[in-house]
Amino acid sequence: MNSMIETSTADCHPASAPDYMPVPELRELQFERLRAVVARAWREVKHYRSRLEERGLTPEDLRSLDDLAKLPFTVKSDLRDTYPFGLFASPMKDVVRLHASSGTTGKPIVVAYTKEDVEVWTSVLVRCFAGCGLHRGDIIQNAYGYGLFTGGLGAHYGAEALGATVVPTSGGNADRQIMLMKDFGVTAICCTPTYFLHLIDRAAELGVDFKELPLRAGVFGAEPWTESMRRHIESSSRIEAFDIYGLSEIIGPGVACECRRHQGLHIFEDHFYPEIVDPATGEPLPDGSEGELVLTTLSKQAMPMIRYRTRDITVLLPGQCECGRTIRRMGRIGRRSDDMLIIRGVNVFPSQVEAALLEIEGTLPNYQIILTREQGLDQMEVQVEVTPHMFNDKIGALQGLHQRLQGALDHVLGIRVRVGLVEAHSLARSEGKAKRVIDRRTQ
Ligand code: DLL
After folding, report:
1. N or C: which end of the chain has fewer CB within 10 A?
2. Residue whose CA is at the smallest distance from ligand 1 atom 30
């Protein structure tokens, strides 16, 4: 780690005040906000109202934070079933921004923000960056993708509000990223951890030594990564690497972030109320038990989420952090309880691949998804079996099929994948459930 990092008051920022709120006061605030958000959801969103009514509940039944466990869960398919705007609690004239993320089939899930929601989002990102020891005067290169993905714009507004200088490079073009990092004297970078690994490799090829640059921090998230990746990143670039977590359904990046103690990610629980449940039964589990993270937004206007099942497996860490923050921490997300894959930071479901193949082929062919990592970058190949007569057929037919599959997959997934046509019966059959995904990425 860079010895130049200030360790004293560097992470104090006025926006961080709620991080240090006395716990009883925090619980009171959470309860007050919970009642308001549930009342809003009940009033404005048919879906929530009928879910509560089915259980004979009204917002008045919430008499303490523990009563939250009585409320029904919200799941990703609720967003799909109400696509595109069915869960909005604000009229469109109050919605200032839409983002989208992969759904389980062809359609994305859509999320909405009012002006106030964007302000909350910005404030939690300021708290993230401040906790990472960043401040005014830092030059932050933001290599999260700008666009429908929440990473780019979310981090952008937070970094600007912090008072830092933002270099909005968005993703891609490693050589240019490295050049700008060097020429602009960038002090911090935001991107997926695997993209930073790719930048490390590419910089070495270009003869650029990250250890000699002013770069001193990286704020990495949007996909799972490990302590060994952190060690590798820190030793090969001499930066301090921070884990940032979030998901579109809740707000985007900025639900939780590490502080400089690196003892778990602080959840900004004055806005996002965390629970851990048993992924199989949905029963709430006590702090310290591993299970699925369930989040309730406490202040979202445009699209409140009540007990959203994130499918991310983690633990709420007992005890307080040495940094003095009173807000709870969660462990790293190591895995998910569903089959979602994250490829170069983009969420991909095997069911999306199936939807694309079905669209082109009419029936679902035997297929396999193969994931590899080349020069630090995730690659996804979809191997599809074709009928024997196609292989004997004119080459043109195969080329046409290849093109159509490529087009459909690119369209549905939103990322470039490789398509491989293979002979019928050449893919390994498994005895039980078909093994559709072979993940050869090393962690
Ligand atoms: O990935 C938001 C984000 C952008 C987070 C930039 C951090 C930085 P989605 O595209 O909706 O949103 O994907 C959310 O990504 O449910 C996790 O499975 C995974 N994920 C996000 N951050 C982490 C992390 C953004 N730090 C899904 N560690 C989540 C592990 C993460 N997994």
Report:
1. C
2. 224
How far apart CA 35 and CA 261 sit, in angstroms, is 34
Residues 200, 210 contacting (CB under 8 angstroms) = yes
Give, in order, the Cα–Cα distances in Å from 141 to each of 12, 180, 323, 424: 22, 9, 26, 47
Q: pLDDT tens, 92-149?
A: 999 999 999 988 877 899 999 999 999 999 999 999 999 999 999 999 999 999 999 9
Number of the ligand 1 atom closest to the C-alpha atom of 340: 18
Asked whether the beta carbons of 349 and 384 are under 8 A apart, the reply is no
Q: Is the CB of 213 under 6 A from ligand 1?
A: no
Nearest CA to ligand 1 atom 9: 247
Q: Are 135 and 111 in contact (CB under 8 A)?
A: no
What are the average pLDDT values for consecutive 10-residue runs of the chain, which has 443 residues?
Answer: 40 90 98 98 98 97 97 96 97 98 86 98 98 98 96 98 98 96 98 92 95 97 91 94 98 98 98 97 96 98 98 96 97 92 91 87 83 90 84 76 92 92 82 79 71
Stated pTM of the model? 0.91
Indicate the helix (H) or strand (E) that contains 370. strand 367-374
pLDDT tens digits, one per residue of 415-442: 999 999 998 888 877 666 678 899 998 7
> What letter represents residue 321's amino acid?
C
Q: Which amino acid appears at position 37 of this protein?
A: V
- Cα torsion 255, 259, 265, 270 to 10°: value is -40
Pick the closest to residue 180 from 151, 123, 217, 142 (CA basis). Answer: 142
DSSP letter for each residue of 301-317: SSS--SSEEEEEEEEEE
Closest CA to 225 of 269, 259, 192, 254: 192
Can you read off the two tokens belonging to residue 439?
């993940």
Determine which residue's CA is closest to atom 18 belonging to ligand 1: 312
State the Cα–Cα distance between residues 352 and 386, nearest whole angstrom: 19
Neighbouring CB atoms inside 10 A of 77's CB total 12
Report cis status (omega within 30 of 0) of the bond before 365. Answer: no
Angle between helices 174-183 and 193-206 (to 10 degrees): 80
Q: Determine if ligand 1 sits within 6 Å of the CB of residue 245.
A: yes
Which of 194, 310, 342, 346 best tests ligand 1's pocket when mutated (most atoms within 8 Å of CB)? 342
| Distance, CA of 352 to CA of 108 (rounded, Å) | 10
Residue recorded with tokens 């997959």: 409
Instruction: Using the mean position of ligand 1's atoms as its centre, give its distance from the Cα of residue 277 in Å.
Output: 19
